[in-house]
Design brief:
- The protein is mostly helical.
- It folds into two domains: about 10-115, no CATH class; about 125-310, Serine Threonine Protein Phosphatase 5, Tetratricopeptide repeat (Alpha Horseshoe).
- The chain is built from 15 helices and no strands.
- Helix 11 (about 215-230) packs antiparallel against helix 12 and helix 13 (about 255-270) runs antiparallel to helix 14 (about 275-285).
- The termini are far apart.
């Protein structure tokens, strides 16, 4: 099946088997040869390439771009490259759509290979997850400063691995782990008495939870923001955060116990004894045996034991 391309440039690219990626490489190399390795050299994005080869350009591009194209095909001027091809030009074979499809398929396959290469081992992710779980469960036995340093080191390690993968599922998993380490940083900053920084870190945790649609992380972040507000003398804000977090779906009994305990404190501070007592009863309720992956699956600092509940009331 044959179809005539709209510009001579398109025909030449087909003749020379220049997909966009190969064209871009040759275009950049020619630019360096003409103008040196300068950040001001002309470039060509894929959308622009499609416009050039599809005959959608009105007028000629800039003079430097024209010089590069004319250097790539010295036998043609830029004006002729962007014009419709001559039907009787013996130098350029007829456009073969089947060959174009084959070239596109090869390029797509090459792109998939490149994406597959830009990934990390699942074992690496498992190791990072284990480290997050270990830190969360060891948190109460560590000085706050040591816990902060450990969490920050782990956060940087996770960030480094996030930069190495383009696999969506791995990116998602690492973002959740990043959110969990940031949550631990928020708690450590609070324990160190740095309330403004703790608030910022808790909000960052909430962003990770929202971005990954991981409701337990969002709820934990809002709960942390609630008790930061409570200890900052802002009981109304504390109550608002705790009540909002309780509306998230997918929370286990432990998550709800923690949030109700925080809300009960805020109610009591506001002098609403009836609501405080009702919310304490909700916190003490055995629940529905519901679990979630953070408060129960990871636990530790993310958990909220009966002992912690007793200390909160």
């Amino acid at each position: 099946m044959r179809s005539e391309p709209r510009t001579l440039l398109a025909k030449l690219c087909d003749r020379d088997k220049l997909t966009y990626r190969r064209f871009d490489k040759k275009f950049n190399e020619t630019g360096v040869r003409l103008f040196g390795n300068s950040p001001n050299n002309p470039t060509c994005g894929e959308t622009q390439f499609r416009r050039w080869t599809g005959g959608k350009l009105t007028g000629l591009p800039g003079p430097e771009t024209c010089r590069v194209l004319e250097a790539m095909w010295p036998e043609y001027t830029a004006a002729k490259l962007f014009a419709a091809p001559s039907a009787d030009d013996p130098q350029v074979p007829a456009f073969d759509l089947e060959e174009r499809v084959q070239m596109t398929a090869r390029e797509a396959h090459d792109g998939a290979d490149a994406t597959a290469a830009a990934s990390i081992s699942d074992n690496t992710i498992d190791e990072l997850r284990d480290q997050v779980v270990s830190l969360a469960r060891r948190y109460h036995g560590l000085p706050a400063a040591s816990a902060y340093e450990a969490a920050d080191t782990l956060r940087r390690d996770i960030e480094r691995h996030r930069d190495r993968t383009q696999v969506p599922f791995q990116q998602q998993t690492l973002m959740i782990l990043n959110g969990q380490t940031t949550a631990l940083l928020a708690v450590a900053a609070f324990d160190l008495g740095y309330f403004p920084s703790a608030r910022t870190l808790a909000r960052t945790t909430a962003v990770y939870g929202e971005s990954t649609r991981f409701a337990p992380l969002q709820a934990y972040a809002d709960g942390t923001l609630a008790y930061i507000a409570y200890h900052s003398g802002e009981p109304n804000e504390a109550l608002s955060k705790a009540r909002r977090a309780l509306t998230y779906g997918g929370l286990g009994d432990v998550a709800q116990r923690r949030l109700n305990a925080i809300a009960a404190r805020a109610y009591a501070h506001l002098g609403d004894v009836t609501s405080a007592r009702r919310t304490i009863r909700l916190a003490q309720d055995g629940g529905q045996d519901a679990r979630d992956e953070l408060h129960d699956g990871v636990g530790g600092e993310f958990g909220f034991s009966e002992e912690r509940l007793a200390m909160s009331n």
